[in-house]
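Question: what's this shape?

___
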Amino acid sequence: MFQQVPMVEVDGMKLVQTRAILNYFSSKHNLYGKDPKERALIDMYSEGLADLNELFIMYPFHPPGKKEESIAQMIEKAKTRYFPAFEKVFKSHGQDYLVGNRLSKADIHLVEMIYNMEELDPNILAGFPLLQALKTRISQLPSVKKFLQPGSQRQPPVDEEAVARARKIFLF
């Protein structure tokens, strides 16, 4: 439609736009809440995480001096802004998952962000026991556990070689 990737062909449709694709699969697999209120909360949490994730996606492309500054800024934001907010949500309702006490795409996004941030700071969850518990709980789900195994489709962190390939392909 917009001549771009990602594009997924599913159920007779060609879907583009990452969030549209995620929302479709989340709805199809009951990871998108049971009503509009739950979907709004799931979207709110997912969009908040998207802000931090955007910083994570872009930092490898920064020049050397800026890259270290960007990493420090991300770690600081995760520790003082994002992770405390999610820890507070879990404390406020005492449930195992962010919304409706059911696994949602927001929980998966949060655990994905935790894994990403742990690549930068292995101790980043110190002081966030409820986030540690969520990570453990989701990491033990059979499909997630399989995905996290060596040799799976999980991509390694972006390295300098990948950055060079991207710069060559996208001419920047």
In short: The first strand starts at residue 7 and ends at 10. The chain is about 65% helix and 5% strand.
